[in-house]
Amino acid sequence: MQKFATLFSKALSEKISAVYSVELSPEEIADMLEYPPDSKMGDVALPCFKLSRTLRTSPVQIASGLADGLEFPEASRIEAVSGYLNAFISDGYVITSTLKGLVDEGENIGRLTDGVGKTMCIDYSSPNMAKRFHIGHLGTTAIGNSIKRIYEFAGYKCYGINHLGDWGTQYGRLAVAYERWGSREEVERLGVKELERIYQKFYIEAEKDPSLNDEARAAFTKMENGDEELLAIWRWFREISLKEFMATYNLLGIDFESYSGESFYNDKMDAVVREIDEKGLLVESDGAKIVPLDDYNMPPCIILKSDGSTIYATRDITAALYRKKTYNFDKCIYVTDAGQSLHFAQFFKVIGLMGYDWEDQLVHVPYGKISVGGQKLATRAGNAVLLTDLFDEAISRVRAVIEEKNPDCENKEEIARKVGVGAVLFNQLSTGRIKDINFIWEDALNFDGNTGPYVQYTYARTCSILEKAGELAEPSADLELCADEKEMISTLARFSERVRQALEEHEPSVISRYLLDVCHAFNRFYHNCPILRASDEEKSVRLAICQVTRNVIGNGLWLIGMEKTEKI
Fold first, then answer.
1. Sheet harboring 84-89: ordered strands across?
2. Sign of the alpha-carbon dihedral angle for 346, 350, 353, 357
3. Which of 42, 70, 229, 434 is the most buried (most CB within 10 A)?
4. What is the pLDDT of residue 410?
């Protein structure tokens, strides 16, 4: 009952304050209220010991006086026990103040207003071009998309930025690999798969001939200096890569407001390097240009390498300055694996040292690393599990289940896609983001227990019940609620709290775990409390619970990037 006692506590505080209008305000009373650990001791309790000094009366007398004289119809009963005033919330109050309020919120249930009038940018997914999506990309993509949606749900104007990894020495390697072992025909035929092959080939051959690395560095320096032949090849590779990426984003229902990758900042970095230098921050070290960060217990932030070429930090500092000017964000979030935490701390600090007062608006949201069979993922090693393979397998398994259990089901392909993709996403987002994950096929494709399909199935069950029920009546305030009904209402009333927690912690798993709580509570309620066969009073309340459950699960699924399924 604690979770929906907020309004009750406010009303109780105001009532008690009215009795002691001179001495105590409602806010002071509210600060004293407690939620007993045992429901037998009440839903809300007022320890009267603190009041005894102010009122110069014993706690026992204060509690007894309030219990005997307080008129408070919102409570089913009020008791005085050893200096405590224990109040029990009436079922009618739960129905009229909490359940009806949840019904009235409709499909906006759980929405917050924290971000109204504010802007946030979020940099996530951001794959390297010329590589196919593998499960190592799932973390930043799924977590970032969910965080963006949570911020939107809280009222923020959100800009999703796909900061493509489309620049750097690796494209010098790719250019060398293409010249030596590639062909236009094979790249046109196989796309990114062929680019991966020659990229892996480069590493194999460089082990035998290290001078290839010098060639690659030289090729990238030429690109930075505007070599048109190399840039034409690079643009072609970028176009092929984007086409590959979009297929996955479309499957996941993800879009971005910007696809400006690292290359976008090529003509903007010189001015930023000059600014860093003019502000007295740049120091030469072994031919490189750095910003020392010893005073902040960090290694130096490299701005220019010894050959004069830029590095990640140069581009990220430039990008942050551009985003602040373009979007005037209140917050800019970066979603990457925890291994990059030092990099972000370094360039955030450089921005602060440059004199910008919005360093604290830059937020790195790290997540744990993923391995396969305990081995670190590496595209060049060829051990990456491709997302296309993972999603295809998940969809295929769901399709087989549908064929077996419901062969006459309409829209089988659409349902298989929603449930299959949802299973993979839920598996990723149901544990804390900072935890390392050892990828196991069987776990990712498990459809039993605390899984995405279980949540989607529960949503479909609520839709089916409401469709059969037809027009809904106002929930009756005269019903005496059973334990399962109370638990259900209490669980549903937590939704906005969980949304705020997920927002503050940048933690989608808060939503995922909460959805499981809702589904467990609803399925117990469904099993123990007949809905369509109940009396009119019972039916009105139980259908209202069902309606709110549908809206809560529906919004919760959207927040973690999953699609709703009206039928399964």
1. 44-47, 84-89, 75-81
2. negative
3. 42
4. 82
Q: Are 123 and 86 in contact (CB under 8 A)?
A: no
Structural domain boundaries of the chain?
A: 2-89, 168-241, 387-559
Start-to-end CA span in the chain (Å): 33
**Both tokens assigned to 437:** 């994950």
What is this structure's pTM?
0.90
- Which pLDDT value is given to residue 335? 98
Query: Residue 190's Cα: distance from chain center in Å?
Result: 34
Pairing assessment for the beta strands 84-89 and 44-47 based on DSSP bridges: antiparallel
Q: Write phi, then psi, for 474 (nearest 5 degrees).
A: -65, 135
| Three-state secondary structure call for residue 437 | strand
- 90 contacts 486 by C-beta, under 8 angstroms: no
Cα separations (Å) of 188 from 173, 236, 238, 259? Answer: 19, 10, 13, 23
Q: Rg (Cα) of the chain, in Å, rounded?
A: 29
pLDDT per position as a tens digit, 493-524: 999 999 999 999 999 999 999 999 999 999 99
Gap between the Cα atoms of 152 and 122, Å rounded:
11
Compute the distance between CA of residue 509 and CA of residue 498 in angstroms, rounded to an integer. Answer: 10
* The pair of three-digit structure tokens given for residue 239, joined into one six-digit string: 């176009």
Choice between 402 and 111, residue whose per-residue pLDDT is larger: 111
Note the pLDDT tens digit of each residue in 451-491. 999 999 999 999 999 999 988 889 988 889 998 998 999 89
Q: Do domains 2-89 and 387-559 have the same CATH topology?
A: no
CB 70 within 8 A of CB 19: yes
Q: Could you give the count of Cα atoms lying within 13 Å of 413 in the half-sphere of its Cβ?
A: 1
Assign a CATH topology to domain 2-89. Answer: Gyrase A; domain 2 (3.30.1360)
* Whole-number Å distance between alpha carbons of 83 and 51: 10
CA distances from 501 to 76, 106, 495 (A): 32, 21, 10
Residue type, 180: R
User: Is there a contact between 154 and 111 (Cβ–Cβ < 8 Å)?
Assistant: yes
User: Which distant-in-sequence residues (6+ apart) come within 8 Å of 254 by Cβ?
Assistant: 125, 141, 145, 160, 561
Give which of 184, 178, 169 is closest to 200, Cα–Cα: 178
Contact at 8 Å (CB) between 366 and 434? yes
Is residue 49 within 8 A of residue 85, CB to CB? The reply is no
Q: Please report the pLDDT score of residue 244 as a whole number.
A: 92
The Cβ of residue 405 has, within 10 Å, a number of other Cβ atoms equal to 9
Contact 444, 426 (CB under 8 A): no
| Pair 151, 158: CB distance under 8 Å | yes
Cβ-contact 6, 43 below 8 angstroms: no
Residue entry with tokens 């001179």:
22
Q: Are 158 and 408 in contact (CB under 8 A)?
A: no
Residue 426: how many CB atoms within 10 A of its CB?
26
Best CA proximity match to 465, nearest among 550, 352, 341 = 550
Question: What CATH number does domain 387-559 carry, 2.130.10.130, 1.10.1610.10, 1.10.730.10, 1.10.10.10?
Answer: 1.10.730.10
